[in-house]
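Issue: copy button drops trailing tokens. Both records pasted manually instead:
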Amino acid sequence: MSSEAGSTRSPFWTLVRAETSIVTVVLGIVAITAATFGTIDSLTDAGGDRVTGSFAIVAPSVIAAWACVEAAWRPSPHALHIRLLVRCLVLPLPVAVASAVETAVVTGLPTAQRIIDEAAAAHNDFHYYWGDGSGALAGVWTLFGGYGVGAFIGLMTFLIITFPLVAILHARYTMRSTDLDLGEEHAQGNRAGLIRTTLGLSASTLAIVLIIYGVNEKHGDGFGESLLNAFRVLSDVDYLADLAWIIGIVLIPIAVVLFVWAMTSTVRNPDGGEGVS
């Protein structure tokens, strides 16, 4: 009877268990602990001078980023896109929920509310972290904010770091996941094309992130001025946005060349792919 029940275990939970390592679990516990410490510390930080108050929001991102990087060397029989969904959307969720609960409980305590009010009163009735609400409301904000940011960070990590690494370290597995011809005649060209494609995807994704960051923070008005400012970052980190923007602009043509180069060397599987079993 028990063996029969065990054989009917949900495929979803079997997949989640297979994609969860002991390191991820330990890191999750550490992240939740840090989030709790950060929430407590933020009660007196009305000016937002310490970053500890952001730990609860950041905690799911740490798990998502680690889980996606870990996928590069952790073997799995599951398709790559399925692993992406689990590691970006499922694994960070328990940490996001736990961080939201601790935020709601800690900031909802009467003693905590008194500390928040006293800190805000000493800072012109302003509190950087809890001025707009505490308790259950803060917990809801932490849940959706932390989970949303975590999923985004996981996706960016997967596209920029993990996908190229998987293509390099586990080429045949990746070719099955992407429906490329596994025949000996095309294997070498497909492997090279796959690596170029993943590097192009990594470069284009990183370019978008850097350009969005740089365009809002850079000091230069054009490419030339921003290029000059980029060299000043060694002596003044205020010009970091200029450097990021320049790198992002340079990465765009590199990504285009990689994509075009990949298209000329890859051959799709005429049978529709073997799939990943």
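Record 2 (pasted manually too):
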Amino acid sequence: MILILNKEPLDIARYHEWLPDTKKKSVFFSSVDADPTFPNGKAYIEQHFYKTRWFQDWNTNVNVELVAQEELKCRNYMSVISTSEVDVLRAARLRTMCRFATINQNPENTLVGFRDKIKMRKIAEKMHILQPRYKAVSSLNDLKEAVQEFGFPMIIKPTLLGGSIGIHVIKDHKDIENFLQKDATKTPDCWNIFIAEEFIQTPMLHLDGIVQDGNVLYSIASRYFNFCLDAFNGLYHGSVTLPHGTNLHIEAEKIIKQFMSNLGICTNFTFHAEFFDTEHGLCFCEIAARPAGGRIRDTILEATGWFDILKTHVQLQAKCFDKTEIHISSNKNDTQTGWIVYPPINGILHQLNINHPPHGVFGIQSKYTIGSRLERATHSGDELVSCLFKVKKTEDIMSQINAISTWFNESICVANNAVGKIQ
């Protein structure tokens, strides 16, 4: 049997199509927020699984794990599958409890290095991997020491959150005051746990790939344009794939293999890693043992023709991924594929005229309609409108991005302000 912990929208995560005989072999636990919006969606999902349970407040509901523990005692389970950031350690604890973690799954003591940013930094430090200077921050004194060590600007972020949630760029003492007032403490005497890092203002890359039995089988590299944090200021961001086998791709994969070598256990998942491209080489930012969010999944599938990072992640955990599906293109002149997201800003959506995109733009998405009330992005994945694009030559990338920017500037109006041109 397989236990699935699901937070994905159910019209996206097609477990019953990706896994064998789910009606007899899979038990499905899901957030009620993932309830599909298509007609009779919930009933449609339930008919495909041996048993289903739906939970409120998925991220913080301790009953998810407690009920799962009881379920795992009742039947002969061989796998626990998770896909979201919040379930990485939850699933790992359940696997460890079932004693099949060391055989074919990802136990908690392995995956904590992909979830807890302080432990992640310590692993990279042990492996002599280039990374930003950092300091754990759990008191005002720690924060003062970080300012003395790194100066301004610097980054402060929670140790266990992803998607740029809770990140602060500290530029001066006023920013420190804002941080102390808003996020630093649960109570006046009890701090949340943060990590402070030196601020590195360089272009960034991400590497997405497949790990099976502890080995990196495949990866694809992409370069970000703008930064994920730009979403909080209403600015677009995105990335574009790099040709397979470039020097940056090879260097990034080498760093991840070095990081993985320290874990010393068989692991099966897809990963999403990020790097700063500095004059001293790639500087490790962080890695997650789960599929990337946003439009990265769509972009990679479009770019490769086969690598669905969510589907592959599910099949790897269920031990049914077929390595013969991997197809590596050696043509360095291949078309490059990218994605771009325009985040929401505060106001009322007055105009959304996106029917005539520039050449090479496709996969346009927006969940909003005219008259929708928008709120400023709080997560790098928040989007007003997003799309994919293709370019034939590397030198055409910026001209394509500028064409998309101009198209959106002319097509979208929020309240009394048109979406401004991005610098």
